[in-house]
Amino acid sequence: MKATFFLFFMPLLLVAAIFLLLSKLSKKIKIWTPERIMIGITSYLVLGLTAFLYISFFAESKIQALSPSEMKQLEKKLEQIQKYDLENDSSYLTEDYKKKTWALKYEGDTLPVIVNGDDSGSNYIIRMRYKDNIDSGQAIVTYYQLPVIIDGIDLSDKIPLPNVYMEHNELFIESLSEQQVNYDRIKPTLSILDFNRDVEQEPYAMDYPYSNVLIIDIPRSTVLEDSQGLVQYIR
Amino acid sequence: MQSLTNISLKTIVKKQVKWKAKLYISALSSLVILQIIFGILLSSSGSTSGYGRGNLSVKFSIYSLDMFLIVSAFWAFIVAILFTTKAYRIDDLSVISSRTSSAIANIFVMIIYSFIAVIIMISTFYLKVLEILLAEKQSFIIENLFISPSILLLCFSSICLFGAIGLLLGTSFKGPTLIKVPIILLLLIFISLVSINLNSLMMLPNLIISVIYLFVSVLCFCLTIWIADKSEVSRK
To answer: Do A20 and B82 touch (CB under 8 A)?
Structure first.
């Protein structure tokens, strides 16, 4: 009830109060002559025009929103990636997506892996791969970041990297604490209409499960111990 | 010597529109002040949308024309009602007028003011954009800088509609009771019909919504003139 009052009646009262006050002032005080008010309004409009010109000539947004056609192309690409992963084929993980590599050392022929996080590993897809050119007692963990598109913006650079380290001869993979990203979006339309229309049109977010991939490369002589059942084999 | 010159309604209305547009100019300055208060100083953003993706949470503050349009529409409604109040009717005595000519002049002034209100609205929007640009350079996303003509028409028709409803409401209050009650009932039925079908109305293209709004505005204007004409005999 209080919110309704503030949202609906307060603006109404304020509009009436300001208008009446200005009407009275313009009659009583001779500073507010129609000519001067007109000059004031014109100046305000010129100010708006100057702002528009400044933005169009000098403002450049560092973040580019993807067009619907670009988003569709990307969606197709990500669907292909899903197929590769289901076939245990790692060839989709190219250098373009590589973000960070950790070279870790361990003792013996077994490497236990422990994934820590709020919801135990759901943030990452973890795969294990045998490599012939790796020395025994060495593991190479590579983090690949695939595109994460939310509302037409690629947020892959904003995703926090996992924390990967060895402790007591165990490989720990930890997701970092939640990160908040804020964006200011300029949309010269009516949001209320867009919101209602978009429900029946295209999806806003491309929430894709195969966006964050961790590959653990180990020599063939090593056995990877995964008690949580989160690591799968990939070629 | 006496003058028996018969001045036509068109001439009277023309003179009144010129005179009233100048006299009520403070209405526009009040809109500028309101737009600055609500659009630039108070509003943080039109709307926000949030997403969570793993350990990343994203918040989009969307700056659209919604707030500016709501303020302008409210302004048009209040100003239109105030135009029909006694204080403003006294101003009519300064020039040759009848209730009908005064109502027609009010309608034209409202249409002109609605058009200027759209320009003020756009001006405020770009000033707001500049404010965000200067404050938040890193997280700034411009989807489009130009306002499409269909959106402009929709804004104009919405402001016009609210102004028309305000004029009709204000005029019907000073009209005969026989007219007052049905008009208010008609308005209530219209508002409830719009509220029920709001979702389906919003799904229509901008141009169709604008045409509907303009059609309803014309209907309200016609009713305003008719009531003013009927009130002529009961003028005190």
So the answer is: yes
Q: Are residues A144 and A200 in the same domain?
A: yes
Strands B47-53 and A163-167, sheet pairing: unpaired
Task: State the DSSP string of B60-102.
Answer: EEEE-SHHHHHHHHHHHHHHHHHHTSHHHHHHGGGSS--HHHH
Quote the number of domains for chain B.
1
A114 CB near a chain B CB, below 8 Å? no
Residues A85 and A195 in one domain: yes
Nearest to A186 by CA among B47, B140, B147, B51: B140
B55 and A181 in contact by Cβ < 8 A? no
Residues of B in contact with A41 (CB under 8 A): 25, 28-29, 32, 116, 120
Q: In what order do the strands lie in the sheet with B140-142?
A: B47-53, B56-63, A179-186, B140-142
Domains: count for chain A: 2
One pLDDT digit (tens) per residue for chain B, 236 residues: 455 566 777 888 888 888 888 888 888 888 998 888 887 777 665 667 766 666 778 888 888 888 899 999 999 999 998 888 866 666 666 666 677 888 899 999 999 999 999 999 999 999 988 888 887 767 778 877 889 999 999 999 999 999 999 998 888 887 777 777 787 788 788 888 877 777 788 888 889 999 999 999 999 999 888 888 877 655 44
Interchain CB contact of A229 with B (< 8 Å): no
Q: Please identify among residues 156-175 of chain A the ones whose CB lies closer than 8 Å to any CB of chain B.
A: 158-160, 175
> Does residue A170 sit in the same domain as residue A89?
yes
Tell me the whole-structure pTM to 2 decimals: 0.76
Domain of B167, in residue numbers: 9-234
Judge: A48–B122 Cβ closer than 8 Å, yes or no.
Answer: yes
